[in-house]
């Protein structure tokens, strides 16, 4: 006889004893508990939840309604009313032996663990009772996740052998859960959720635990619903030897989530970016990082297979720039459909989620669009070399081990408005084939204490995987000089400046700050920023060159005098506005762009920037 058959025979024997009580006759001797491994489900239920003999019979009385067609009529006969063909506490107290009132209380196992439900119908003793569906399946020997949990939790299968860098962490989880009682909350800190899931699954599998994952967003805010979720999950841990991985992601510590963590028993792990403070439950924090560079190389080679030999050069560049998780590496290999497309596939996989904190700029400008003196161009090319060769210098050549601080690549672009600072950032992004994001300071800066640092952390953490280029435009508005501390506002303003300095030094990509007022920046920035590029106001020769490069080849022009145009003393950004406005004027007149159109556009632009036009600037244009 297999376990299922033996379990069914034992359950039917126990039901027969309760049915005899309903019929008013002495039951047969209770069936002997068979020598089964595991024990029959009924006996396991009693052991798991500490049921008394009376509570055990109440569960059987309710289960009989679904498992034995005679129970409804027997309940009606025993209660002397054909309409009361359902179990009640009154009936149980009258016909079952060893009855005790304490079994009816909310804190007793029957109601605390939702083994039975008290349906609406009047007083407590006369209300209909119904066995919980999950409990019924358990008694019948069918393992089935509670349907109220099935929509919010998902099983986490144990993958293959974890990577070396994660194997030790999984072993720590196993050792902690094996040794400690009650179990502490195990916090897995890091940004790679897939790695956290794999480590948690490996650690729990070694103990024979079935791991499930649930998003912290699924935790209800209503106190009654929260209590129900806690009870249902604790019951599930008993039924199926389950452990829960609560995925907090970027969710802030909220009261409902904290209450759920501190009130839920059983094995509980957190996948969180940073350690959470728990006041009423002990916790242990473990760091889970992305695969090491050597492990990433092995993952790439395994995912690419035979194609790895053909993209070896591109693979080295990818390894130096991107810090991808195992899942992202596999997805990039699937997405890369042709030689040379691996880099772009990695850009897509590493593209950060900034939500409303940044705007992605599609870089289209090239070196030919940039008109600057040679020293500035040389510095910009040095910046590209630092970004492109950082892996070789820091890793292969050992500079990261020599000095762990200040490895971030940062640049300050200073100069008047319209001198090409943002254009230069586009050129760098285009040259390096990296994403460029303009940080929205209106969304980053907050008047609430600590919120600005939190937003900055989100920006840098989101961008770190792919080393995107971050552009803090007009940064002097946020990162001004640190002032003497006179009140709490000064103290927290200084903390914001210090925090940005720390994150820029640790950021693995390129962070660019632009400013129109270099003197307004904190001197500590200038000491710790690697490159400072001064964008000068263009002289006549440079303005002439900007004018020559401003009109696309397909734009019809007629009689443009670049030497005369260069006499207009405005910056490159203004020149672009004038050229674009003149093109619209010419298109509307169905004419090629002429000096007359540029004169009208120049007048409009100078009115906008409140600049008077002199005869020496526009004389002879028309």
Report on the architecture of this protein.
The chain has 622 residues and is of the alpha/beta class. It folds into five domains: 3-144, no CATH class; 149-287, Rossmann fold (3-Layer(aba) Sandwich), CATH 3.40.50.300; 293-350; 359-535, P-loop containing nucleotide triphosphate hydrolases (Rossmann fold, 3-Layer(aba) Sandwich); 540-618, Helicase, Ruva Protein, domain 3, CATH 1.10.8. The protein is built from 29 helices and 14 strands. The strands form three sheets. Strands 3-5-6-7-4-8 form a six-stranded mixed sheet. The protein is elongated.
Summarize the structure.
This protein is an alpha/beta fold and 622 residues long. Strands 3-5-6-7-4-8 form a six-stranded mixed sheet. Strands 9-11-12-13-10-14 form a six-stranded mixed sheet. The relative contact order is 0.06.
Write the layout of secondary structure elements.
Layout: H1 3-22, H2 41-49, H3 53-67, H4 71-79, H5 89-95, H6 109-112, E1 116-118, E2 129-131, H7 133-140, H8 147-150, E3 153-155, H9 164-179, E4 185-189, H10 193-205, E5 210-215, H11 223-240, E6 242-249, H12 255-263, E7 267-272, E8 283-287, H13 293-304, H14 312-321, H15 326-335, H16 342-350, E9 358-361, H17 374-388, H18 390-396, H19 399-402, E10 409-415, H20 421-432, E11 436-439, H21 441-444, H22 451-464, E12 469-472, H23 488-506, E13 510-515, H24 523-528, E14 531-535, H25 540-550, H26 562-565, H27 572-588, H28 595-608, H29 615-618
Parallel strand pairs: 4-7, 4-8, 5-6, 6-7, 10-13, 10-14, 11-12, 12-13
Antiparallel strand pairs: 1-2, 3-5, 9-11
Helix pairs in contact: 1-3, 9-10, 11-12, 13-15, 15-16, 17-20, 22-23, 25-27, 27-28
């Amino acid at each position: 006889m297999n376990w299922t058959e033996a379990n069914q025979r034992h359950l039917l024997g126990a039901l027969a004893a309760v049915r005899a009580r309903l019929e008013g006759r002495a039951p047969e001797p209770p069936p002997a508990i068979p020598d089964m491994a595991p024990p029959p489900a009924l006996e396991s239920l009693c052991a798991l939840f500490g049921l008394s003999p009376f509570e055990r019979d109440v569960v059987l009385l309710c289960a009989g309604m679904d498992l034995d067609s005679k129970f409804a009529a027997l309940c009606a006969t025993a209660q002397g009313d054909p309409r009361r063909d359902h179990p009640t506490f009154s009936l149980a107290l009258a016909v079952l032996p060893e009855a005790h009132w304490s079994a009816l209380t909310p804190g007793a196992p029957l109601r605390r663990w939702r083994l039975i439900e008290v349906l609406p119908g009047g007083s407590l003793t006369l209300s209909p009772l119904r066995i919980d569906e999950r409990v019924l399946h358990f008694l019948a020997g069918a393992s089935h996740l509670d349907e109220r949990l099935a929509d919010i939790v998902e099983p986490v299968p144990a993958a293959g052998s974890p990577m070396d860098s994660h194997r030790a962490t999984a072993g720590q989880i196993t050792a902690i859960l094996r040794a400690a009682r009650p179990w502490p909350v195990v916090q897995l800190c890091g940004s790679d959720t897939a790695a956290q899931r794999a480590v948690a699954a490996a650690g729990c599998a070694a103990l024979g635990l079935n791991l499930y994952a649930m998003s912290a967003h699924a935790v209800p805010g209503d106190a009654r619903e929260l209590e129900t979720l806690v009870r249902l999950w604790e019951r599930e841990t008993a039924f199926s030897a389950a452990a829960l991985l609560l995925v907090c992601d970027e969710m802030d510590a909220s009261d409902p989530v904290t209450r759920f963590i501190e009130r839920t028993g059983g094995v509980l792990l957190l996948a969180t970016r940073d350690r959470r403070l728990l006041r009423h439950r002990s916790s242990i924090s473990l760091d889970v990082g992305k695969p090491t560079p050597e492990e990433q190389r092995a993952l790439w080679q395994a995912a690419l297979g035979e194609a790895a030999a053909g993209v070896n050069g591109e693979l080295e560049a990818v390894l130096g720039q991107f810090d991808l998780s195992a899942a992202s590496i596999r997805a990039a290999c699937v997405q890369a459909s042709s030689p040379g497309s691996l880099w772009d596939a990695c850009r897509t996989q590493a593209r950060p989620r900034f939500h409303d904190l940044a705007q992605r700029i599609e870089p289209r400008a090239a070196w030919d669009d940039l008109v600057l003196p040679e020293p500035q161009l040389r510095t910009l090319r040095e910046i590209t070399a630092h970004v492109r060769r950082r892996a070789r210098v820091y890793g292969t050549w050992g500079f990261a081990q020599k000095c762990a601080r200040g490895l971030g690549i940062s640049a300050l672009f200073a100069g008047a408005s319209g001198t090409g600072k943002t254009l230069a950032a586009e050129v760098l992004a285009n040259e390096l084939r990296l994403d460029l994001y303009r940080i929205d300071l209106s969304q980053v800066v907050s008047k609430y204490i600590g919120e600005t640092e939190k937003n900055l952390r989100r920006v840098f953490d989101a961008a770190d995987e792919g080393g995107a280029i971050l552009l803090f435009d007009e940064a002097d508005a946020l990162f001004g000089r640190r002032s003497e501390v006179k009140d709490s506002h000064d103290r927290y303003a200084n903390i914001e400046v210090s925090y940005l300095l720390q994150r820029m030094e640790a950021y693995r990509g390129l962070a660019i700050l632009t400013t129109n007022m270099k003197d307004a920046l904190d001197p500590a920035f200038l000491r710790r920023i690697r490159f400072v590029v001064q964008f000068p106001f263009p002289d006549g020769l440079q303005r002439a060159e900007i004018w020559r490069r401003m009109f696309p080849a397909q734009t019809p022009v007629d009689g443009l005098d670049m030497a005369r145009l260069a006499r207009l003393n405005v910056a490159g950004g203004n020149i672009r506005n004038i050229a674009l406005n003149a093109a619209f004027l010419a298109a509307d007149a169905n004419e090629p762009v002429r000096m007359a159109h540029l004169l009208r556009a120049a007048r409009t632009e100078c009115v906008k920037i409140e600049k008077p036009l002199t005869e020496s600037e526009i004389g002879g244009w028309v």
